[in-house]
Amino acid sequence: MAKRRRDTQTLDLLRDFTPAPIVERFDDEAVKAFSIAARLAKAITATFADADMDRRQLAQDMSEFLQDDVSKHMLDKYASSSAEHQISAVRLLALVAVTEDVRPLNTLLKEAGLIAVPAEYEALLRRERARELKEKIEREEQIADAAWRASRR
């Protein structure tokens, strides 16, 4: 039988398709550091680099978000792994909200085995958890049925 030739004229729409990640995070090597604080500082630095605005604008937008004063100088300290200043949870939230980049938060949450996902996926997560519980209950029911049948012999 003759070997079929591959059609080179038709585009393969899925060949180069890579779905967007559900959980946005930095590559482990990009935030590799000796401590949690240093990893977070690297994540903040990367977020600043990827942001569509400079640190002065970020500081201004974060100040507006928080209704509190955030300076460029303070942002520089948050990005420094050698500085004694670490970003607070509230300011980290402001950074995530202003840049729309959840990766620094996920860098921190990874240490606790957690992730931040978009709120739109909450219903799907609840559904999957319900399915897991349902399967567990069904297994328990099967075990109880087997025990009942065994005791009747």
UniProtKB/TrEMBL annotation:
Highest taxon above the source species: Bacteria
InterPro entries (alphabetical): Phage_186_CII-like
Q: Which GO terms describe its molecular function?
A: DNA binding
What is the protein name for this chain? DNA transposition protein
Species of provenance: Pelagibacterium halotolerans (strain DSM 22347 / JCM 15775 / CGMCC 1.7692 / B2)
